[in-house]
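Hi! If you just cloned this repository, the fastest way to understand the data is to look at a raw example. We've pasted two of them here, unedited. The first protein comes first, obviously.
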Amino acid sequence: MRYISTRGSAPALNFEEVTLAGLASDGGLYVPEVWPQFTRAEIADMAGLSYVETAVRVMMPYVEGSLDEDTLRRLCEQAYCGRFSHAAVTPLVQLDHRQWLLELFHGPTLAFKDVALQLLGLLFEKFMDGRDEHLTIIGATSGDTGSAAIDALAGREGLDIFMLHPRGRVSDVQRRQMTTVLSPNVHNIAIDADFDTAQALVKAMFNDPGFSGRYHLSAVNSINWARLMAQVVYYFYAAVRLGAPDRPVAFSVPTGNFGDVFAGYVAAKMGLPVAKLIVATNVNDILHRALTSGDYSAGEVTPTAAPSMDIQVSSNFERLKFDLGGRDGAAITAQMAAFEKSRAIQLTNSQREGAAKLFTSARIDPDDMSLAMRWAWREAGQVIDPHTGIGLAAARDVDLDPAIPIVTLATAHASKFRDPVERATGVRPQLPSRVGDLFERQERYEVVHATFDDVTAHIADLATPSK
């Protein structure tokens, strides 16, 4: 399997090279040169498989040439056996005759990011083994990526992780899950700006030869293809349990950066019968506007009770625009340059028409989010977090064939957002016992001005240069 950049001018790489590179050298995002295809019989054969075996089947086409099947299986066993509190890893929970939750929060940091990042940490370690160099991981987080990446990488030899988060714009639990990890290779940076600024700073570091040339940089955000690849697995795992390939399944995905829902698009491209992907946004609704009217224009970020979705620039949307636009790297380069200049573009007809075949979207306001959270508790006994509430609100409102089951991705444990959950349901969720002492742990992080010069100077003081 080879990978190409959405902007067309970076060299094609294999899976190992793509994992270690993160962002393409031309500023684009890597995607597979071709989408692997599963037959109906191959999908049907996944019924009854464990999560690990499902993961091996789904991911093997993407890693060929870099990992053999036995090695991939061993890495998946390390990632998912023992570090997740549920034997199914990502269990399904039924809410009523049609609505289901896919619980993605049973990992060590109580969020869906664990599913990908536990594996990504092992991939970094595997691919760096025997190399006489140091890896510098740089990432930005709107809440959950940071804690999941830090848990996966803390204490690993030969690498440092620098994680930027928007100061005061993540929940107390999210912040503490990052800042109480005191391993010497973990460096938390709080910036006085929003997530979009943090994400832009990370991209600027990768694209600046004077900085990136000094270090062996890689990424843990969903700009890294390996992150998305691992997330494709749970779409297959859920769908076959609800009757795929003989029965189509719809998925409602609370999303800001478009990574989790793009993994669903990949599953559909591979042959999974996905009836519809519902893109559920909060009031930071750039994706909803883009999918309904073609208006991809960034506004000001509005802080909400679902902070992981408080995003106005969705990095992974570039992958979809590339795939739906005929995979024309030059056209995407021009389109993204126009966006970076004006912060506003219109999707092309081919992009809009292609998206409409699989995607629908909804903008969920705070009242509808709370109503969905209250319904889940009163009618099904399920306490869900605000992000999941947004996904469920969109799922309950969509116009689809009633025979099609709808799976809402439950992206975080409710205890990570105790105050809004209590306001909506009257229930104050408790942290699971495995993280119950979180508020007694010592914190460590640095506050840095949100400028390229200040952030890179801070990292340069602590990072290990390339040899």
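Ok, and the second one:
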Amino acid sequence: MSLAMPPVCSATVANRKEIAAGLRSIVPDGVIEIADELKPYESDGLTAYRQPPLVVVLPETTEQVSRVLAWCHREGIKVVPRGAGTSLSGGALPLADGVLLGLARMNRVLDIDYVDRVAVVRPGVTNLAVTGAVEGEGFYYAPDPSSQIACTIGGNVAENSGGVHCLKYGLTTNNVLGVEMVLADGEIIRLGGRDLEAAGLDLLGLVVGSEGLLGVVTEVTVRILPTPETARAILLGFPTTRAAGDCVAQIIGEGIIPAGMEMMDKPATHAAEAFVKAGYPLDVEALLIVEVDGPPVECDILLETIAGIAAAHGATTSRISQNEEERLRFWAGRKAAFPAVGRLAPDYYCMDGTIPRKRLSEVLERMAELSRQYGLGVANVFHAGDGNLHPLILYDANQPGQLEKAEAFGADILRMCVEVGGVLTGEHGVGVEKRDLMPTMFNEVDLAHQQRIKCAFDPELKLNPGKVFPQLHRCAELGRMHVHKGQVPFPDLPRF
């Protein structure tokens, strides 16, 4: 592992059997400590980095989660929460001296209310399973990450996940109404509820996207939406990525907000077509999939307008889906693009940054220059509508130095995103992957304020340490005042 992680406490490691026994007293049938059985948990979706956990515990109830966290808090043991392990930023990377708290067994749909249009689920319910639970009544859950068949709602909350339809319907934060959460010391709290607006500070907005640093989510209340009356997609091919990028900018500039707008460059398009046989044109440099939904007449008008914009930008392919089967086929290649790109190289490094849409063409061209500079291929698959890039850097981990080159290439891409007015991440989170790049976007004051929030929720800094912050300061260093026997330091100073 080339990333520095928190120092390992040798005393904790030496105490493994006693720790496992303590956890087994809380979750009798859900503790894993044998080395071979820990292997599946040594990494998440960022497979370049691996580290077996000290021990794994798999609770089934909120009470068990509470008791596990309270026990670890008393014993001073670090805890790393984990959903399905699909994180692409190393957010669930374990620690050698930490307990991995897996939530996959908490996988029940607790309640569905079609009148209020909400569903209440445990964190281990998969994203796609929420839609599966409500589609019979004509509803669905809007956020749809490409990993939705496997990724879980708890992990979606941790990373503020998106998906191809987040352009119109929002990310996880726009579709979560409330959570039940267990704090580091075992206290159970509730934030939000079933209402669209909650009173007071927006603590729920703080928790969504907090990457497991503030607490462990054990229940989620999500919005469900009526299935659109009509959904149709148009497949557009362009001779250059600049033409495709300019087309994206004009579609949004015309005031059209598609349900989804995704782009793939030539390497990604060829890989997806070979993998899925979706009928993609292979003579284009960039492929754009644009979907609209709503009443049929509205969809017809929007598709006609989009086709006209694409033609003005030199589109050589323009094909509108004629039925639901064809629409799903258009999307099948995009949904399978990440695994499909695995055919191009032994390994790939998936990045995640967001830029202003108007800079899309420029960034893609500069990315091609970086590809030549580093001597590594790159395939681009991304949410074009909101400027969320997912460059896939191709490399071979068996070749000495290639992983390091891929990391440097990826870091340059993310620095470029910030340089053009964007941000380090769109939906994958910071984790360990972007942790050391945080100063590129935030100054010391910004980071200190973020860490004060961490201290408010987790003063002992035991939840998911080593993630997000390039240097995690002790809470005392950030201004927490020590009161000894009721006496504050410098009592003569005025305090407000």
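That's it. A detail worth noticing about the second one: The first strand starts at residue 31 and ends at 32.
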